[in-house]
Amino acid sequence: MAALYSILLALILATLLVTTRVEARAFFVFGDSLVDSGNNNYLATTARADAPPYGIDYPSRTATGRFSNGYNIPDLISQSIGASESPLPYLSPELNGPRLLVGANFASAGVGILNDTGIQFVNIIRIGQQLQYFQQYQQRVSALIGVEETQRLINQALVLITLGGNDFVNNYYLVPFSARSRQFALPDYVRYLISEYQKILVRLYELGARRVIVTGTGPLGCVPAELAMRSRNGECSVELQQAAGLFNPQLTDMLLGINSQVGADVFVAANTQLTHYDFISNPQAFGFVTSKVACCGQGPYNGLGLCTRLSNLCPNRDIYAFWDPFHPSERANRYIVQQIVTGTTEYMNPMNLSTILALDSRT
Ligand SMILES: *[C@@H]1O[C@H](CO)[C@@H](O)[C@H](O)[C@H]1NC(C)=O
Ligand SMILES: *[C@@H]1O[C@H](CO)[C@@H](O)[C@H](O)[C@H]1NC(C)=O
């Protein structure tokens, strides 16, 4: 009896969905803590943001798993493309029925391009698994709206992927003489990362993604955590800056290379290094009192350990560029997303999000 009811309910739902056309474009998110909206809440891992003061400025004033005091980058992109809501974490039990059509967030804090990145966090959704979940998602949506309509939804969707920072911070530079740093000189490691990242992005293309924003890493050496651990006088860590300086331009070249192979502007490089650099080099111009000290943390620059209830907490989060030792505040995220939406080609190569939206609305 219960089974019959659920079959009937599914049929009614499916009919409703087919008749209410898929309006706003779907949005899919892959990557690490900069874009995780709560998947790690459902996993046995230490890489999590599900306790206060995380979320202190989020509309619900609760910790959701976002590594921010308020909105994160995917939230602000969702808002700027006019989506009704941010895509839910893929592991959320609430991601069902019509809500699947909004998209899904597969990101998991701690992951990198490489499988051995973030091993200390144990149970995280590595990028290969994120892509497998994307396939599973497509099967679930096909059961709702059919294969053809699902394909269309995927092809017309916007995709955001953020990877790479952890391959340096939580792998190559995690400990002195790490396995990867003994295996590779930095320039060779970067080339290896780029070639592995290319395979991931080609797979994403094969799975139907046609508009993919790929962020580079920020200035890794300038985050409060690195200032606390590696800097003597508040200057950015030379090695990590070198790593970001090698990685980001090669990432852009690789993306433009795939575009010319597939003959379309599928991948867009977001120069988050430059965006961060803007407010790091002149915080006052952006309304920040500092870009060196995290709002939430302890030790020098509030850069040591985790952001918890016991940490120092700044009273006004809007005047800090960094919320915790690694992650930008909502205010800084707003500037990052503003550049994604309207930045010049120096920030968004080959085009910004408003150009993408304008182009796609014509077809
Ligand atoms: C990472 O792990 C996945 C799944 O086990 C595997 O398919 C993939 O080849 C691995 N990647 C690398 C670079 O070893
Ligand atoms: C987006 O990029 C285009 C092309 O580079 C540029 O002309 C435009 O000013 C940018 N901003 C907006 C809002 O379109």
TrEMBL record:
One molecular function GO term is:
triacylglycerol lipase activity
EC numbers, comma separated: 3.1.1.3
Alphabetized UniProt keyword annotations: Hydrolase, Lipid degradation, Lipid metabolism, Signal
Asked if the keyword Cell cycle belongs to this entry, the reply reads no
Q: Matching InterPro entries, A to Z?
A: GDSL, GDSL_Est/Lipase, SGNH_hydro_sf, SGNH_plant_lipase-like
- Provide the leader sequence positions: 1-24
Q: Which PANTHER family match?
A: GDSL ESTERASE_LIPASE LTL1, GDSL LIPASE/ACYLHYDROLASE FAMILY PROTEIN (AFU_ORTHOLOGUE AFUA_4G14700)
The EC class name is hydrolase
Protein's UniProt name = Triacylglycerol lipase
Which Pfam family is one of this chain's hits?
Answer: Lipase_GDSL
| GO annotation terms (biological process) | lipid catabolic process
UniProt source species: Handroanthus impetiginosus
The record's family statement is:
Belongs to the 'GDSL' lipolytic enzyme family.
Q: Reply yes or no: does the keyword Transcription regulation apply.
A: no
